Amino acid sequence: MQSLSEEEKKQVLGSVLADQLSAIQEAVKDVPEIKTKLDNMERILSDVGSDVRVAKAAITDLSHQVNEHEREIARLQSI
């Protein structure tokens, strides 16, 4: 069996490296799109978090109002 010359070894190595580079490029080609989507999701989640806090505050306020009305009704019924 004949061994490869230095030039042939370089060609084989170059081919292997080109294949690896191609695989890496394929794996990372969607990274910018994924980052954009994640940024959008982060903004949406922030908005949802704000909305949940507002809803929670409104529910707490309504709960206090209902409790106050129930106390007032009970007081009026006892008269």
Total of domains:
1
- SSE series: HH
- Main sheet makeup: none
Helix content: over 70%
Derived structural class: mainly alpha
Task: State the end-to-end CA separation.
Answer: 112 Å
Structure commentary:
With 79 residues, the protein is mainly α. It has one domain. It contains 2 helices and no strands. The chain has helices at 6-28, 31-77. It is rod-shaped and about 110 Å long. It starts with 5 loop residues before the first helix and ends with a helix. The model has no long low-confidence stretch (mean pLDDT 95).
Task: Give the helices and strands, then pairings.
Blueprint: H1 6-28, H2 31-77
Offer a few descriptive terms.
89% helix, mainly alpha, 79 residues
Q: What's a concise summary of this model?
A:
The chain has 2 helices and no strands. It has 79 residues and is mostly helical.
